[in-house]
Amino acid sequence: MNATIDRQEALATAETRIEPGKRYGFFTDTTLCIGCKACEVACKEWNQLPAEDMALSGTSYDNTERLSATTWRHVRFVEQMADGSGERAAGDGSAVPRPGDGPHNAAPDRWLMMSDVCKHCSNAPCLEACPTGAIFKTEFDTVVVQQDICNGCGYCVPACPFGVVEIDQLDGKAHKCTLCYDRLKGGLEPACAKACPTDSIVFGELGALDRRANERVRELHARGVEDAYLYGTPGSPGATGGLERLNAFFLLLDRPEVYNLPAAPSRPASRILPALGAGLAAVAALACLAGSIFAERPRR
Amino acid sequence: MLDRPTERLARPYSGETYYERAPLKPAHWDWTVSSYIFLAGLGGAAQGLATLARFADARQFAGLVRNARHLGTAASALGAALLVLDLKTPGRWYNMLRIVRPTSPMSFGSYILTAFGGLSAFTSFSEMVGRRGLVGRMLARLAGIAQIGAGVTGAGASTYTASLLSATSSPFWAATPRHLGVMFGTSAVACAAAALSLGERWAGRHASGRRLDDIAFFATAAHLLASLSWTRRLKREGIPEAVTSSPSGRTLNTGEMLVAGAVPLAAYALNRVATSNRDPALSVIGSVAILAGGLMLRHGALGLGKETAEQPRTYFGRAQPAQSKRLRDRR
Ligand code: SF4
Ligand code: SF4
What we know:
The structure holds two protein chains of two kinds.
Chain A: H1 9-14, E1 24-29, H2 38-47, E2 73-80, E3 110-117, H3 125-129, E4 135-137, E5 143-145, H4 156-159, E6 166-167, E7 174-175, H5 181-185, H6 191-195, E8 201-205, H7 206-222, E9 229-231, E10 248-252, H8 272-295
Parallel strand pairs in A: 1-10
Antiparallel strand pairs in A: 1-8, 2-3, 4-5, 6-7, 9-10
Chain B: H1 7-10, H2 31-57, H3 62-86, H4 105-129, H5 133-166, H6 171-175, H7 177-202, H8 206-236, H9 240-245, H10 247-274, H11 280-309, H12 312-318, H13 322-330
Helix pairs in contact in B: 2-3, 2-5, 2-7, 2-11, 3-4, 3-7, 4-5, 5-7, 7-8, 7-11, 8-10, 8-11, 10-11
Bound molecules: iron/sulfur cluster (2 copies).
């Protein structure tokens, strides 16, 4: 797998040389996102993914609604009002106020947009769960499902802490973002990153991406945007509970939950030993008891 | 790192969601998987009990051992069929044995099930051949060795399913791995003793039936105690309403507390006190209740895992450990 890639278009479009053995990912800077959905479209086109049922969701401009087996980029739209209504007000479990509800018949005061994607976790829970070996780590340190091996057991689906991977009902195999594995092999940056007009999505080698992201956070803080923080870099929210880091990480402005992300996800495999150990211990204790009951002299 | 976290980012989670959308995707598994979990528990623990009974007195418990062997074989065959049925690409079931992955209970569980099924089938085969002739005697001797393996892998088959569910991100499954293990383990032993007791009573071997009832009694008592502690623990882990309010929650609660708990305990106790264990009817009631409750427990637990995966507050509320607390402390 050490063959070098001759044509390096990514050098021109993403200032990145793509070399097998190095770690690659996305840095998605949500402060730059304008919600154009070019990433969603580019992803569908390159990966030849079919359109899904189209309808107006009533939740801002987010009619895509979710990542799925056939949607691998998903732009979220969070509308927030200065008076605290909107997303943040829904904490009591009441219905979510929508723009136009209540007193303000106005545009939102703040609009957060975020292009979500598979996080290509370092200790990927989907991969750790997959019993067939269909999910593997590529030479670019990305996480890819091999549909010619997957048997549709569905274990990766509840394993993912971010609700990303899904089984397609038509072919019965798991599908998700491949970080454009085929393009990387040809020296091309992933389609979404290339299409993004604001560079909200940046593709690159992890070291360079981390530097760029930290620089951006510092810059934003200096400009007074003190809420800016990274989600998914080592030691930050999202990279918790043994996940180590997310190769696709984000710069966010509000709590992770506002973007439908868990603040502190954990690695499911860490729960195997407690469950199995406790179960076996209970069975062993009852076995001792059963053994003595069987061995008792006949009573009558 | 949360550099200079502002007030809003550092305060505890207060229920924010993204349009109430599901943060996770639920497993597609349905009754086939919960029935498999039940069968693996039943057959696995039955072979475990048979191993112990053989050590204690192979002659007296010969009937019990024969039933347990056939039960183990049938349960693993039927269970494997159910698992294949559940695959979205069933033609590729054999890929389950393509690799070994210790981080995946579904992977090592496939090997446990394969070993358990194979060993059980061998012990069953020797029962069918009988002890006559040189071949029969040799088979029986080998089956005695295989029986130990069947007992050990049976213990694994009856409990690894708890780690299968726990090693996911679905809140209800992930919340209490240890309790889930104990619940599945105690229920498996109770179910196996109950099923074998039914066989003994049916064949009129009341002496061994009584012993099995005693085992079922203690396993049920342990099960009930564990389920009481489980309920409290779930509350601490932020999953109280789900357990009591949804249909799956009610199935689970009724199954573990009443059907597989209070009813059999009362039946066995009554049998012991009132009729000095002579009334097979009460024993049968207790055994049937344990089996029905064991099935309900698995169905309810499976359903709750899928439901809670789609509840943003249940998931986000739990995915808030030290992180935000540490930030608050630092301020
Ligand atoms: S985000 Fe989910 S699907 Fe993507 S690598 Fe991580 S666990 Fe797998
Ligand atoms: S559905 Fe396919 S990719 Fe997912 S865990 Fe099962 S075999 Fe692996």
